[in-house]
Design goal:
heterodimer; A: alpha+beta; three-stranded antiparallel β-sheet; B: mainly alpha
């Protein structure tokens, strides 16, 4: 049985979820996704950038370059108000779906 | 996150080449290109340094960082969807994104592009002349027959430099068309009049050079996706329509001209 695949919307929701905790740059997002999912979510690392840029285009996150002492310049992403709303709605939808799936598949 | 340390110039260059290839494959607009390249390069650098700290040799770490990042073919199409409309992404976006290494571009690619450019310019001049001297009906017929070919040839010029397989084959097709036009010129030339089929000479020359460098060309387009037979047939149809356009237009009832141009 092949593993379930993330569609674009699910992937975006996961990114919003991570950025809802604190602002992050792309490499951090990739590392968090890999670590927290125990490498179950293991997409090509580069695909995180189109997803982040798409969220930025849609006004859900805001990207900005930041330079800190001793570290290279990085582009951080932070949730916007619209992104925060979208995260809340997406989380509700996801939980309803997960509860429904659990009800069918058993816990 | 590990960030300390520097990378050698050759590793830096490899990482930058990969980041640029991904951005080109995404047909990212100029306004966002440098910004995105810097961001992707930052990721590749950081990953390479992290892997080096884990004990990998720098070149192996760079190989792994590039492999983990994903190929331009995997990441590029995602970027196309970010910066362009769905219509653009599903049409031109499929035909245009860059995949080739520009530093290994065979010289004949430049000649094919030049020939495509010449064919586009001549075709556009013919369209303008048609609107000037022909009736609207004949002009529309001319546009229907040659328009798709002109559009594809124009699109093939930037696509070919990016290593798109379809653009190379389209250029070869246009070269064959040049040769056939030239043969047609010779066959229909009035007796006693010297006819030099320049187009056929150019097209034939390009075909010969392309054949001589076929392995380099195959390598140049090797990262581009193979197109489906239906697409190949559709593209070939545009070439055939352009080829037979003079015959079809010649057989249309000659209408009265709207204007008679006066050449001085």
């Amino acid at each position: 049985m092949p593993a379930p695949r993330l569609d674009r919307g699910d992937y975006a929701l996961l990114l919003l979820g991570l950025l809802g905790e604190r602002e992050m740059y792309g490499y951090e997002v990739v590392a968090e996704l890999r670590d927290r999912s125990a490498a179950v979510i293991d997409l090509p690392e580069g695909t995180v950038y189109p997803a982040l840029r798409r969220l930025e285009r849609d006004g859900l996150v805001r990207g900005h370059w930041r330079e800190t002492d001793g570290a290279p310049r990085r582009r951080y992403y932070a949730l916007t108000l619209a992104g925060d709303r979208a995260l809340g709605e997406g989380r509700d939808v996801w939980r309803r779906f997960a509860t429904a799936a659990d009800g069918i598949l058993g816990r | 996150m590990s960030t300390s340390g520097d990378l050698s110039a050759s590793t830096e260059s490899r990482l930058r080449t990969h980041a640029s290839a991904v951005v080109r494959a995404g047909a990212v607009p100029r306004a966002h290109r440098d910004d995105l390249t810097d961001e992707l390069l930052g990721h590749l650098r950081e990953r390479t340094l992290a892997l080096r700290i884990q004990g990998l040799a720098e070149s192996t770490a760079a190989d792994r960082a590039i492999a983990d990042f994903g190929t331009p073919e995997a990441v590029g199409p995602e970027l196309v969807g970010v910066y362009h409309s769905r219509l653009w992404a599903s049409t031109i976006g499929v035909l245009l994104p860059a995949v080739a290494d520009r530093t290994h571009r065979p010289a004949v690619v430049g000649w094919i592009r030049l020939m495509l450019a010449i064919s586009v310019v001549f075709s556009l001049v013919a369209v303008v002349l048609s609107t000037w001297i022909d009736t609207p009906g004949r002009t529309i017929a001319f546009l229907v027959l040659t328009g798709p070919g002109i559009a594809l040839a124009a699109l093939a010029i930037p696509a070919l430099v990016r290593g798109q397989r379809w653009a190379l084959w389209y250029g070869i097709g246009v070269s064959i068309e040049f040769v056939m036009f030239g043969i047609g010129q010779l066959v229909t030339a009035s007796p006693g009049i010297l006819t030099i089929p320049i187009g056929a000479i150019v097209g034939g020359g390009i075909l010969l050079v392309a054949w001589a460098h076929r392995s380099e060309l195959a390598t140049f387009v090797s990262r581009s996706a193979r197109f489906r037979p239906a697409v190949a047939i559709a593209f070939a149809a545009t070439l055939v329509l352009t080829l037979i356009a003079p015959v079809i237009l010649g057989n249309l009832a000659t209408p009265p001209r709207r204007r008679h141009p006066t050449w001085r």
